[in-house]
Amino acid sequence: MLGPVLLAAARSDSIRRLVSAAPVTRPMVDRFVAGEQLEQCLTNVTSLTGRGMQVTVDHLGEDITDRSEAVRNRDAYLALTDALAGAGLAEHVEMSVKLSAFGQALPGGHDLAQRNVLPVVEAATAAGTTVTLDMEDHTTVDSTLAILGQLRERFPRTGAVVQSYLFRTEDDCHALAGEGSRVRLVKGAYKEPAAVAFQNKGEVDKAYVRCLKVLMAGKGYPMVGSHDPRMVAIAQDLAERYGRKKDEYEFQMLYGIREAEQERLVAQGHGMRVYVPYGTDWYGYFMRRLAERPANMGFFLRSLVSRG
After folding, report:
1. Where in the sequence is the domain holding 140, given as residue range(s)?
2. What is the mean pLDDT of residues 233-260?
3. Which helix (H) or strand (E) holds 204?
4. Which residues are the active-site residues?
5. Which GO terms describe its biological process (predicted)?
């Protein structure tokens, strides 16, 4: 299976240099990443909102190595918040943040990430939008949920992300499904050990449905993060079973993936939010997208080898 290999390669500096230098890379990156600069990102975001989409924007910058990078990432989000407010987009566009980009993995990282994310959430609230805390590998879950809990004391609309392939996630869904809680459910995109996560796709899918039932039955606001047609259909059925109106949950899909399905859901009156990443530090995100999509992965690797 090439997927696990690519997930491991996402953390390799030597492979990063090879991939970044390959001529075939740029067109593939452009499919999944909405530009390296904020201006490019805003152009793509404006196009999406003009077609009835909601958006969440991610400034790429995980796996940082020092505190100055964490500050730069914080400042990039503050600039993004100002830009969204200035463009009149805050009503339709929120932000997604990875706490690793704010220093979570550095020494003293929990407190550092909390200090750096707080002004971003404050600025987002002042601008009329929200922040969702992305979930990363299993070693970060407890820290991320603890920071979420602290933020929600002042900013209750701060969103959470949970990953169905982790054994613990069904319990986390029960804890997070309270009044007003915004929770994005995804399958998971990191290489996790068998001690903490389902390894079989069928088991991951079953866990996703179990978690989705918990969220749809709860009092929060489920955000269905999936491109899987079966999961989209199941989510619609569960929403109807639990009496949810179309504005009481939403679908979320990645920028550049299943665009026709995104348009279809909007045409049906569903909330459809597109996850839009931008920035120069695109490598880790790009490699995870290839690992998730075998067709894209095969095309890219064949092109990389032939160009090499």
Report:
1. 34-278
2. 96
3. helix 201-217
4. 134, 184
5. L-proline catabolic process to L-glutamate
